[in-house]
Write a structure and sequence with these properties.
The structure is a single chain. Helices cover about 45% and strands about 15% of the residues. It is of the alpha/beta class and about 350 residues long. The chain has two domains: about 25-105 and about 220-330, 3-Layer(aba) Sandwich (D-Maltodextrin-Binding Protein, domain 2), CATH 3.40.190; about 115-215, Periplasmic binding protein-like II (D-Maltodextrin-Binding Protein, domain 2). The longest helix has 23 residues, at about 235-255.
Length: about 350
Protein backbone atom coordinates (compact mmCIF):
# COMPACT_ATOMS: atom_id res chain seq x y z
CA UNK A 1 0.00 0.00 0.00
CA UNK A 2 1.32 3.45 -0.91
CA UNK A 3 1.86 5.82 2.00
CA UNK A 4 -0.43 8.89 1.90
CA UNK A 5 2.57 11.20 1.91
CA UNK A 6 3.74 9.56 -1.34
CA UNK A 7 0.43 10.45 -2.97
CA UNK A 8 0.88 14.02 -1.74
CA UNK A 9 4.35 14.27 -3.25
CA UNK A 10 3.12 12.80 -6.54
CA UNK A 11 0.26 15.26 -6.69
CA UNK A 12 2.60 18.16 -5.94
CA UNK A 13 5.04 17.03 -8.65
CA UNK A 14 2.14 16.72 -11.09
CA UNK A 15 1.04 20.28 -10.36
CA UNK A 16 4.60 21.59 -10.72
CA UNK A 17 5.09 19.70 -13.99
CA UNK A 18 1.77 20.98 -15.31
CA UNK A 19 2.63 24.56 -14.46
CA UNK A 20 6.08 24.20 -15.98
CA UNK A 21 4.53 22.76 -19.14
CA UNK A 22 2.08 25.63 -19.39
CA UNK A 23 4.88 28.16 -18.93
CA UNK A 24 6.86 26.43 -21.69
CA UNK A 25 3.84 26.68 -23.98
CA UNK A 26 3.11 30.35 -23.25
CA UNK A 27 2.01 32.32 -26.30
CA UNK A 28 4.48 34.39 -28.28
CA UNK A 29 3.08 37.74 -29.37
CA UNK A 30 4.00 38.64 -32.95
CA UNK A 31 3.14 41.55 -35.24
CA UNK A 32 2.18 40.78 -38.83
CA UNK A 33 2.18 43.37 -41.61
CA UNK A 34 -1.07 43.63 -43.53
CA UNK A 35 -2.30 45.43 -46.64
CA UNK A 36 -6.07 45.77 -46.86
CA UNK A 37 -6.23 43.56 -49.96
CA UNK A 38 -7.87 40.20 -50.64
CA UNK A 39 -4.39 38.74 -51.21
CA UNK A 40 -3.72 39.17 -47.47
CA UNK A 41 -6.67 36.97 -46.54
CA UNK A 42 -4.59 33.95 -45.37
CA UNK A 43 -3.26 35.89 -42.36
CA UNK A 44 -6.74 37.11 -41.52
CA UNK A 45 -8.20 33.61 -41.88
CA UNK A 46 -5.41 32.08 -39.79
CA UNK A 47 -6.31 34.54 -37.05
CA UNK A 48 -10.07 34.09 -37.35
CA UNK A 49 -9.94 30.28 -37.53
CA UNK A 50 -7.55 29.97 -34.60
CA UNK A 51 -4.64 28.57 -36.62
CA UNK A 52 -2.21 31.04 -35.03
CA UNK A 53 -3.54 30.25 -31.56
CA UNK A 54 -2.95 26.53 -32.16
CA UNK A 55 0.70 27.40 -32.79
CA UNK A 56 0.80 29.38 -29.52
CA UNK A 57 0.98 32.65 -31.36
CA UNK A 58 -0.90 35.80 -30.43
CA UNK A 59 -1.06 37.98 -33.54
CA UNK A 60 -1.38 41.74 -33.80
CA UNK A 61 -1.92 43.12 -37.30
CA UNK A 62 -0.13 46.29 -38.40
CA UNK A 63 -1.64 47.80 -41.56
CA UNK A 64 0.32 49.46 -44.38
CA UNK A 65 -0.55 51.10 -47.69
CA UNK A 66 2.55 50.06 -49.68
CA UNK A 67 5.22 47.35 -49.74
CA UNK A 68 8.33 49.40 -48.97
CA UNK A 69 7.27 50.73 -45.53
CA UNK A 70 6.46 47.15 -44.48
CA UNK A 71 10.01 46.04 -45.35
CA UNK A 72 11.43 48.89 -43.28
CA UNK A 73 9.19 47.90 -40.35
CA UNK A 74 10.51 44.32 -40.52
CA UNK A 75 14.10 45.58 -40.44
CA UNK A 76 13.45 47.85 -37.47
CA UNK A 77 11.71 45.11 -35.50
CA UNK A 78 8.39 46.95 -35.40
CA UNK A 79 6.85 44.06 -37.36
CA UNK A 80 7.85 40.38 -37.21
CA UNK A 81 6.44 39.02 -40.48
CA UNK A 82 5.37 40.61 -43.72
CA UNK A 83 3.58 39.39 -46.82
CA UNK A 84 3.95 41.70 -49.79
CA UNK A 85 5.70 42.35 -53.08
CA UNK A 86 9.47 42.39 -53.50
CA UNK A 87 10.62 46.01 -53.43
CA UNK A 88 13.93 47.82 -53.79
CA UNK A 89 13.71 48.62 -50.11
CA UNK A 90 13.38 44.94 -49.18
CA UNK A 91 16.34 43.95 -51.37
CA UNK A 92 18.57 46.72 -50.02
CA UNK A 93 17.72 45.65 -46.49
CA UNK A 94 18.55 42.06 -47.44
CA UNK A 95 21.96 43.24 -48.62
CA UNK A 96 22.43 44.91 -45.24
CA UNK A 97 21.76 41.46 -43.76
CA UNK A 98 18.62 42.37 -41.81
CA UNK A 99 15.71 40.76 -43.74
CA UNK A 100 15.09 37.46 -45.52
CA UNK A 101 12.37 36.11 -47.82
CA UNK A 102 11.17 32.79 -46.35
CA UNK A 103 8.27 31.77 -48.61
CA UNK A 104 5.90 32.56 -51.45
CA UNK A 105 2.37 33.98 -51.36
CA UNK A 106 0.33 35.55 -54.17
CA UNK A 107 1.16 34.08 -57.58
CA UNK A 108 0.03 34.39 -61.18
CA UNK A 109 -1.17 30.97 -62.29
CA UNK A 110 -2.47 29.71 -65.64
CA UNK A 111 -6.25 29.28 -65.66
CA UNK A 112 -6.85 31.44 -62.57
CA UNK A 113 -7.88 35.07 -62.86
CA UNK A 114 -4.99 37.44 -62.21
CA UNK A 115 -3.86 41.05 -62.35
CA UNK A 116 -5.24 43.34 -65.06
CA UNK A 117 -3.72 46.17 -67.04
CA UNK A 118 -5.90 49.28 -66.88
CA UNK A 119 -6.07 52.61 -68.70
CA UNK A 120 -8.12 55.74 -68.19
CA UNK A 121 -11.12 56.29 -70.44
CA UNK A 122 -9.36 59.28 -71.99
CA UNK A 123 -6.33 57.16 -72.89
CA UNK A 124 -8.56 54.39 -74.24
CA UNK A 125 -10.51 56.85 -76.39
CA UNK A 126 -7.17 58.19 -77.67
CA UNK A 127 -6.22 54.73 -78.94
CA UNK A 128 -4.56 52.99 -75.98
CA UNK A 129 -6.63 49.85 -76.38
CA UNK A 130 -3.81 47.27 -76.02
CA UNK A 131 -0.64 47.19 -73.87
CA UNK A 132 1.44 47.72 -77.02
CA UNK A 133 0.03 51.25 -77.18
CA UNK A 134 1.47 52.17 -73.75
CA UNK A 135 4.64 53.44 -75.42
CA UNK A 136 4.93 57.13 -74.56
CA UNK A 137 2.24 56.93 -71.89
CA UNK A 138 2.27 57.49 -68.12
CA UNK A 139 1.99 54.52 -65.74
CA UNK A 140 1.05 54.98 -62.09
CA UNK A 141 2.97 53.24 -59.29
CA UNK A 142 3.05 53.58 -55.52
CA UNK A 143 6.83 54.01 -55.32
CA UNK A 144 9.77 53.62 -57.67
CA UNK A 145 10.92 50.01 -57.39
CA UNK A 146 7.45 48.71 -56.50
CA UNK A 147 5.83 45.68 -58.14
CA UNK A 148 3.81 48.10 -60.30
CA UNK A 149 7.06 49.55 -61.67
CA UNK A 150 8.36 46.05 -62.43
CA UNK A 151 5.15 45.10 -64.24
CA UNK A 152 5.24 48.23 -66.39
CA UNK A 153 8.77 47.44 -67.54
CA UNK A 154 7.97 43.79 -68.24
CA UNK A 155 5.15 45.00 -70.51
CA UNK A 156 7.63 47.26 -72.35
CA UNK A 157 10.14 44.41 -72.67
CA UNK A 158 7.66 42.01 -74.24
CA UNK A 159 6.10 44.61 -76.51
CA UNK A 160 9.58 45.53 -77.77
CA UNK A 161 9.92 49.19 -76.82
CA UNK A 162 12.33 50.89 -74.43
CA UNK A 163 11.46 50.82 -70.74
CA UNK A 164 12.06 54.57 -70.65
CA UNK A 165 9.18 54.98 -73.12
CA UNK A 166 6.76 54.29 -70.26
CA UNK A 167 6.75 57.29 -67.95
CA UNK A 168 6.62 56.03 -64.34
CA UNK A 169 4.62 58.23 -61.96
CA UNK A 170 5.13 57.45 -58.23
CA UNK A 171 2.04 58.42 -56.22
CA UNK A 172 2.86 56.76 -52.86
CA UNK A 173 -0.49 55.12 -52.09
CA UNK A 174 -2.94 52.90 -53.97
CA UNK A 175 -5.91 55.30 -53.40
CA UNK A 176 -3.85 58.10 -54.95
CA UNK A 177 -3.10 55.94 -58.01
CA UNK A 178 -6.80 55.12 -58.39
CA UNK A 179 -7.78 58.80 -58.12
CA UNK A 180 -5.16 59.79 -60.69
CA UNK A 181 -6.31 57.12 -63.14
CA UNK A 182 -9.97 58.05 -62.76
CA UNK A 183 -9.19 61.70 -63.42
CA UNK A 184 -6.83 60.89 -66.33
CA UNK A 185 -3.80 62.42 -64.59
CA UNK A 186 -2.09 59.13 -65.49
CA UNK A 187 -2.81 56.84 -68.41
CA UNK A 188 -2.30 53.33 -67.02
CA UNK A 189 -1.89 51.03 -64.03
CA UNK A 190 -2.03 47.30 -63.17
CA UNK A 191 -3.80 45.75 -60.18
CA UNK A 192 -5.48 42.62 -58.79
CA UNK A 193 -8.76 41.53 -60.45
CA UNK A 194 -11.26 42.62 -57.81
CA UNK A 195 -10.01 46.21 -57.78
CA UNK A 196 -9.70 46.19 -61.57
CA UNK A 197 -13.22 44.84 -62.02
CA UNK A 198 -14.72 47.34 -59.62
CA UNK A 199 -13.00 50.26 -61.32
CA UNK A 200 -13.98 49.11 -64.81
CA UNK A 201 -17.65 49.04 -63.81
CA UNK A 202 -17.53 52.77 -63.10
CA UNK A 203 -16.99 53.72 -66.73
CA UNK A 204 -13.92 55.90 -66.10
CA UNK A 205 -11.42 53.05 -66.58
CA UNK A 206 -10.91 50.27 -69.14
CA UNK A 207 -9.18 46.85 -68.90
CA UNK A 208 -6.78 46.30 -71.84
CA UNK A 209 -4.76 43.23 -70.86
CA UNK A 210 -3.49 40.68 -68.34
CA UNK A 211 -0.19 40.75 -66.48
CA UNK A 212 0.13 36.96 -66.85
CA UNK A 213 0.61 37.47 -70.61
CA UNK A 214 3.79 39.42 -69.86
CA UNK A 215 5.34 37.65 -66.86
CA UNK A 216 5.53 33.85 -66.63
CA UNK A 217 4.82 32.37 -63.19
CA UNK A 218 5.04 35.76 -61.50
CA UNK A 219 5.66 35.41 -57.75
CA UNK A 220 3.73 38.57 -56.96
CA UNK A 221 4.22 38.57 -53.19
CA UNK A 222 6.49 36.79 -50.75
CA UNK A 223 6.61 36.05 -47.04
CA UNK A 224 9.52 37.68 -45.26
CA UNK A 225 10.95 38.26 -41.81
CA UNK A 226 14.09 39.59 -40.14
CA UNK A 227 17.34 37.68 -40.52
CA UNK A 228 17.40 37.45 -36.72
CA UNK A 229 14.09 35.58 -36.72
CA UNK A 230 15.18 33.33 -39.58
CA UNK A 231 18.43 32.34 -37.89
CA UNK A 232 17.85 32.70 -34.15
CA UNK A 233 14.11 32.06 -33.78
CA UNK A 234 13.54 29.28 -36.28
CA UNK A 235 10.86 27.61 -34.19
CA UNK A 236 8.85 30.86 -34.17
CA UNK A 237 9.21 31.16 -37.96
CA UNK A 238 8.13 27.54 -38.47
CA UNK A 239 5.09 28.01 -36.25
CA UNK A 240 4.11 31.18 -38.11
CA UNK A 241 4.46 29.44 -41.46
CA UNK A 242 2.46 26.41 -40.28
CA UNK A 243 -0.46 28.64 -39.27
CA UNK A 244 -0.17 30.84 -42.35
CA UNK A 245 -0.14 27.80 -44.64
CA UNK A 246 -3.36 26.55 -43.02
CA UNK A 247 -4.83 29.96 -43.74
CA UNK A 248 -3.67 29.65 -47.36
CA UNK A 249 -5.27 26.21 -47.68
CA UNK A 250 -8.61 27.46 -46.37
CA UNK A 251 -8.43 30.58 -48.56
CA UNK A 252 -7.66 28.62 -51.75
CA UNK A 253 -10.40 26.04 -51.07
CA UNK A 254 -13.01 28.68 -50.32
CA UNK A 255 -12.24 31.53 -52.72
CA UNK A 256 -10.07 30.17 -55.54
CA UNK A 257 -11.18 26.58 -56.07
CA UNK A 258 -14.63 27.16 -54.52
CA UNK A 259 -14.72 23.74 -52.87
CA UNK A 260 -16.24 24.66 -49.50
CA UNK A 261 -19.98 24.78 -48.69
CA UNK A 262 -21.59 28.18 -49.21
CA UNK A 263 -22.09 28.81 -45.48
CA UNK A 264 -18.42 28.12 -44.71
CA UNK A 265 -17.30 30.36 -47.56
CA UNK A 266 -19.56 33.15 -46.36
CA UNK A 267 -18.11 32.89 -42.84
CA UNK A 268 -14.58 33.17 -44.26
CA UNK A 269 -15.47 36.15 -46.43
CA UNK A 270 -16.94 37.85 -43.35
CA UNK A 271 -13.62 37.34 -41.53
CA UNK A 272 -11.78 38.99 -44.41
CA UNK A 273 -14.32 41.82 -44.54
CA UNK A 274 -13.22 42.96 -41.09
CA UNK A 275 -10.04 44.26 -42.77
CA UNK A 276 -10.76 44.42 -46.51
CA UNK A 277 -13.43 46.87 -47.76
CA UNK A 278 -14.38 47.31 -44.13
CA UNK A 279 -15.90 50.71 -44.96
CA UNK A 280 -18.48 49.06 -47.22
CA UNK A 281 -21.53 46.97 -46.26
CA UNK A 282 -20.96 43.24 -46.51
CA UNK A 283 -23.52 42.91 -49.29
CA UNK A 284 -21.27 45.06 -51.50
CA UNK A 285 -17.88 44.04 -50.14
CA UNK A 286 -18.42 40.27 -50.12
CA UNK A 287 -18.64 39.83 -53.90
CA UNK A 288 -15.63 42.12 -54.40
CA UNK A 289 -13.54 40.09 -51.97
CA UNK A 290 -14.44 36.87 -53.75
CA UNK A 291 -13.79 38.40 -57.18
CA UNK A 292 -10.26 39.34 -56.09
CA UNK A 293 -9.15 35.84 -55.12
CA UNK A 294 -5.93 35.01 -56.94
CA UNK A 295 -4.02 31.84 -56.11
CA UNK A 296 -1.78 31.88 -53.03
CA UNK A 297 1.16 29.46 -53.20
CA UNK A 298 0.17 26.23 -51.38
CA UNK A 299 2.49 25.41 -48.46
CA UNK A 300 4.32 28.68 -49.04
CA UNK A 301 6.09 27.31 -52.11
CA UNK A 302 8.43 29.92 -53.61
CA UNK A 303 9.07 30.40 -57.33
CA UNK A 304 12.80 31.09 -57.29
CA UNK A 305 12.94 31.70 -61.06
CA UNK A 306 10.54 34.62 -60.59
CA UNK A 307 12.47 35.98 -57.60
CA UNK A 308 15.72 35.82 -59.61
CA UNK A 309 14.09 37.66 -62.50
CA UNK A 310 12.86 40.39 -60.18
CA UNK A 311 16.29 40.74 -58.58
CA UNK A 312 17.87 41.00 -62.06
CA UNK A 313 15.38 43.76 -62.98
CA UNK A 314 16.16 45.79 -59.87
CA UNK A 315 19.87 45.44 -60.61
CA UNK A 316 19.44 46.42 -64.26
CA UNK A 317 17.63 49.57 -63.14
CA UNK A 318 20.39 50.48 -60.68
CA UNK A 319 18.08 50.25 -57.68
CA UNK A 320 20.13 47.60 -55.89
CA UNK A 321 23.77 46.54 -56.01
CA UNK A 322 24.85 44.27 -58.84
CA UNK A 323 26.82 42.37 -56.18
CA UNK A 324 23.70 41.33 -54.28
CA UNK A 325 23.35 37.54 -54.39
CA UNK A 326 20.10 35.59 -54.27
CA UNK A 327 21.42 33.75 -51.18
CA UNK A 328 21.43 37.08 -49.32
CA UNK A 329 17.78 37.63 -50.23
CA UNK A 330 16.15 34.22 -49.70
CA UNK A 331 16.43 31.63 -46.94
CA UNK A 332 15.35 28.46 -48.75
CA UNK A 333 15.36 26.25 -45.67
CA UNK A 334 11.72 26.81 -44.66
CA UNK A 335 9.60 25.96 -47.71
CA UNK A 336 9.76 24.09 -51.00
CA UNK A 337 11.17 26.10 -53.92
CA UNK A 338 10.96 25.72 -57.67
Amino acid sequence: MTHPSTWGKAALLSVIFGLTGSWAQAQDTIKVGLLRLTSHSPSIIAQGKGYFAKQNLKVEFVTFQAAQPMAVAIASGDVDFGVTAISASLLNLAEKDVVRIIGGALTESAGIDGQKILVSKAAYDAGVTTPAALKGRTFGVTTAGSSFHYMAHKIADKEGFARSAIQIKPLQKVPAVIAALKSSQIDAWSIVPNIAGGLAKGGEIRVIGRVSDYIDGYQVTTIFTSKKNATQRRDLVQRFLAAFEQGVDTYNKALVYKKLPANETEAIVKMVHEYVYADQPFEKAGPRIQAGAMLISPRGELNMASVRDQLAWFQSEGMVSKDLKIEQVVDTSFVKTK
